[in-house]
Amino acid sequence: MNLSNNFNLTELLRSQTATRKRFDEQFDPGPQIIENLRALCSNILQPLREHLDLPLFISSGFRCARLNRAVGGAQKSQHLFGQAADLEAVVGITNRDIFEAIKTSELPFDQLIWEFGNEEEPSWVHVSFSERNRRQVIVVS
């Protein structure tokens, strides 16, 4: 199922941990989760993809509760509601470039998080979209 021109439901549900541990509920989200993922794609991921003109790798999108616990996610993570994605650079760009592109854009994000890494490069970039869209920028090291 396509969520936008360049993103589909499968890539926003993908999880090696869920597959390995047989968390079947990960791959059968309800309609509200799908709508939240569609809003995330339409408002953040697709415009970012078009701006960068490069593919983005979604390392984590929606997480069922068991998966979120298994990966050590925050108890109230927006991933649980299909409102967040963790992004990693693929080719021709760095994770820092992704972070800076979102930070300096007019995209209506809720949270933008520089996740771990070092002062030069995050290990991945977390971005979320919700009804709040506070444009919070956070660095986690």
From TrEMBL:
<dbReference type="InterPro" id="IPR009045">
    <property type="entry name" value="Zn_M74/Hedgehog-like"/>
</dbReference>
<dbReference type="InterPro" id="IPR013230">
    <property type="entry name" value="Peptidase_M15A_C"/>
</dbReference>
<feature type="domain" description="Peptidase M15A C-terminal">
    <location>
        <begin position="6"/>
        <end position="127"/>
    </location>
</feature>
<protein>
    <submittedName>
        <fullName>Peptidase M15</fullName>
    </submittedName>
</protein>
<dbReference type="Pfam" id="PF08291">
    <property type="entry name" value="Peptidase_M15_3"/>
</dbReference>
